[in-house]
Known about the structure:
single chain, mainly alpha, 63% helix
Amino acid sequence: MGTLWLGGLVFMVLMVAAVWKVFEKAGQPGWACLIPIYNLYVTLKIAGKPGWWLILYFVPLVNLIVTGVVSLGVAEKFGKGVGFGFGLWILAFIFYPILGFGDARYKTT
């Protein structure tokens, strides 16, 4: 049981560090990934989507689509393709560390 807890803790720390790095690469404060709801707003900014989309995260089923579209936007802003965006949406625990710790750079235009 202790090993399971330790593994979960290591996983959580890795994910926080990965998203923190992604936020910093995009010119946002890394600590923002730790604040519920605000982290969604910052992710919208990173993806180049309007802030009012935050409301859509609270609509059941619509939030799934919005998450997919935002993931595609984040991937695009980092110079990645649709496949990578789909990976951010479905397998975030794999693709956010790749984005955060890899050599991808945020593109402001």
